[in-house]
Task: structure prediction
Amino acid sequence: MDTDVIVVGAGPTGLMLAAELALGGASALVVEALPERSGQSKALGVQPRTAEVLELRGLLEPLLTGGVQRVPGGHFAGMRLDFTAWDTAHPYMIGTPQSKVEPVLEGRVRELGVRVLRGQPLVELWQDDTGVSARLGDGAVLRGAWLAGCDGGRSTVRTLLGVDFPGLEGRQAMAVADIRLAGRVGARWRLPEMTPSPAGRAYLTPLEGGVHRILFYGPEQQDLPREAPVTEQEVGRALMLLPEPEARLESIVWASRFSDASRQVEDYRHGRVLLAGDAAHIHSPMGGQGLNLGVQDSFNLGWKLAAQVRGHAPAHLLDTYHAERHPVAARVLANTRAQSLLLVAQEEHLALREIVAGLLAVPEANAVIAGMISGLDIHYELPGPAHPLLGRRLPGASALPDRRGALLGAGSELRTLAGQWGSRGAVPQEAGQETANEAVLVRPDGYVAWAGHREQDLAEALHHWFGPPA
Ligand SMILES: Cc1cc2nc3c(=O)[nH]c(=O)nc-3n(C[C@H](O)[C@H](O)[C@H](O)COP(=O)(O)OP(=O)(O)OC[C@H]3O[C@@H](n4cnc5c(N)ncnc54)[C@H](O)[C@@H]3O)c2cc1C
Result:
């Protein structure tokens, strides 16, 4: 074997997975088609739950340096959301581009000694009972015990597996361009506005270093093929749709086309191959959730796959990745479909939009949707005695052990019990104050696996998540 896990794709999902695997004690090798990072930023924002996840691994601070915008709250189809209804240290969107997130993750991957092979596309794969073989562009064949397809929306891994990608065709073709402008520019971050306009719509957002992002759609974009380059003339026409049309195009930094198509694979696992991030699900970028979803897929998968590799994983553990993460992405697909309808509003949708806006003015309703968009409301269906925290994130946790769970607030008897798993390095050893009546077992991905005080229940939870004691 060349490695325990071949990770295909060095986007945010693949890099996060490689880091988590290494922390969990598995070896990983990342293969990436591009010879160097593109520097492009599809995503511009990190949501509150991703901020918490990054903080758990000490990766948030580097992202918060350098004049990053903290956009208060988020939005649902351009209608403001207030994240402060949720108990989090980060009730805001971090306005940081994907081009800044990826180097932070890659830095961690390299620190952990994981190799990233650039300019090496995966072109062929085959698997048997013991592992997966991957042929790269130069003909070399790598062998790993497992392979993770983190190679984006047009995933080669998914295609080579012959896996369907069912969902909805895009109904609205859009274009995005990061541009330099001459002339007076009145751009500031603001919510997308939505009045139907036959000529189309454009939004301008300031980025770092004098660059602006323009996102636009209209009749012209519907007729152009996806591969057609976004031209200066096309961007120039889009600028005329802005409320401040005196901005003139100087140059295009990069540009691309996308749509509101939404698709999701039916199974995240195919033998020894797993799919994560955009390779497993795509949706409209409205609401800024795709990068966040991929990073959190990897946070869920990493410790489980590492435990599997190291031989500690209970038989069912790896399959909980699909069971837990598929419904999370399905919800995002649903909320982005709803947002597309409300955003790209036709005349007849405006009444619906008005009603939703009225509901979002009610704090309780706002909190529900804020929880959905921020990822703070994620609730995995986990076995064990009912408890309000079971399957949810632990609010206020800012650092947790990576490969082990954490037993917080436990009395000495519970700690002694958990210690039986600790000697094998796969389970909890941390403890809070000895006198606490109730203890909480937190998984390495920050979700509560058990909460209570009964020794028997804790023993069952430890068995369930970490296998028998050493
Ligand atoms: C206009 C736009 C705006 C967006 N805004 C946001 C936002 O604000 N917030 C948000 O959360 N998300 C946003 N997204 C979505 C976000 O960019 C994606 O969800 C995210 O990039 C997915 O990460 P990934 O690692 O799964 O895939 P990718 O970022 O696509 O990375 C896949 C990697 O795999 C590599 N690869 C492909 N094929 C192969 C192969 N055969 N062999 C080896 N490597 C291969 C690629 O080169 C690439 O580096 C936006 C998307 C768009 C289009």
